[in-house]
């Protein structure tokens, strides 16, 4: 029987399934401020999805598995986005790394 690794599985299905696993098992402690915080200085509002913390944790786990020696700085680059500055040109902003 051929073995299946995380690289063989669709990333969207894995992140969705692992996020639901984290939520169902309750092994991940979610902070109280999770519904109020922005994820980057480029964002205007907090995420709309109430389970965004589980999804982000699952995406980080997948990324660490795929690219093993990963630090916090590289994760802020991976999950960063562009900041819209109105009529001025947009610029890339890193993801916030102050989540504990």
Automatic annotation (TrEMBL):
It comes from the Eukaryota. It holds the Pfam family Ribosomal_S19e. SUPFAM superfamilies: Winged helix' DNA-binding domain. Keywords: Ribonucleoprotein, Ribosomal protein. Gene3D superfamilies: Winged helix-like DNA-binding domain superfamily/Winged helix DNA-binding domain. GO terms for molecular function: RNA binding; structural constituent of ribosome. One of its GO terms (biological process) is cytoplasmic translation. One of its GO terms (cellular component) is cytosolic small ribosomal subunit. The keyword DNA-binding does not apply. Belongs to the eukaryotic ribosomal protein eS19 family. PANTHER family: 40S RIBOSOMAL PROTEIN S19 (PTHR11710:SF0). This is Ribosomal protein S19. It comes from Callosobruchus maculatus (Southern cowpea weevil).
């Amino acid at each position: 029987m051929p073995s299946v690794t995380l690289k063989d599985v669709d990333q969207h299905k894995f992140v969705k399934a692992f996020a639901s696993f984290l939520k169902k098992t309750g092994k991940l402690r979610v902070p109280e401020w999770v519904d109020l915080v922005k994820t980057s200085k480029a964002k205007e509002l907090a995420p709309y999805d109430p389970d965004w913390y589980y999804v982000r944790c699952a995406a980080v786990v997948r990324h660490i598995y795929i690219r093993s020696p990963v630090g916090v700085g590289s994760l802020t680059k991976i999950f960063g986005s562009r900041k819209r500055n109105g009529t001025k040109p947009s610029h890339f902003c890193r993801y916030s790394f102050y989540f504990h």
